[in-house]
């Protein structure tokens, strides 16, 4: 039996299937981006902003926790089994939302959505890294995130249009059922990358390929300056996104925009995020990780403050695009930095810890934004949350080393 070859070109069919699969993973989230915050207010009568954002909190914490375990489970049992499990669980999400009679059912559905995303999205990115060469990791992650957030953007716009044409539910969530079925079928076709991982582990046999879950958690969270700085930056990025997910529809409603206009702005932000990752991931393979992470975090903060400072639809659109660009600068780059530092044998576990902290940002962002909005207003909540990516940019500037050079030394 021939040994698997490493490299995107050598595995292009498998790689393309994984890109398409993550398009559908992201689409599951996109359906909710426009509709659920409005559903909470209009259909379930939630007056408290923090209560309305509870679905994001449940999503964020469940995804974060599952991310942590998904990496170690995948290292032990294989990537494909975890990917399939994610899609089986994802099928229940739109069904629960369609038939929800109380808000707690929506919250439960988002716990399942978090599990679906934690298992399925984690595996698509890990499988792409398994297939890619060391100097292609930024490109691999960039393509993965481009596909996922393109799915988020397209379905955010489509669900907004469907909701405004028909109703907030059930029509948008019929699409979710179709997406779940297609995602499951794609996962059955995709081959496992166990053989490619073994090749990489053999090439890195001089490194410490065995590490306990506790050691990986400590190393990624605080012991290693590069891994821990990346983890904080990831959490700050998604803290901002958890706020944007929950508060943008509410903020733009207060300034008089229609559901269709809100859906467009809410879609443009992840669209820019997705599209520009085609370039930023590959750019980090050439220019390095540190600059893109630092300036990307600062760009996000600046974009949020810009959105609050302006007062017209075209300028809000521009701010959403800049916010997406700033996020695109850091999203694939942070994951590439993690894979630069972590050895192949514990890379998925370290990525799981990073993604645990990163996606807990969804929950912390929604929780923090909801509390601030209830006491000080939506505008203050957006402005104060923007401080987090700004601080993360400072830490990256003064604490993060250039991990791409480390990776090149390994080669």
TrEMBL record:
Transmembrane segments annotated in the record for this chain: 12-31, 51-70, 82-100, 146-166, 172-190, 250-272, 363-396
Subcellular location: Cell membrane
Entry keywords, A to Z: Cell membrane, Membrane, Transmembrane, Transmembrane helix, Transport
A GO term for molecular function: transmembrane transporter activity
Protein origin, superkingdom: Bacteria
GO cellular component: plasma membrane
Coiled-coil blocks: none
Membrane topology field: Multi-pass membrane protein
Major facilitator superfamily (MFS) profile domain: residues covered: 14-404
Name the UniProt record assigns to this protein: MFS transporter
Organism the protein comes from: Salinicoccus roseus
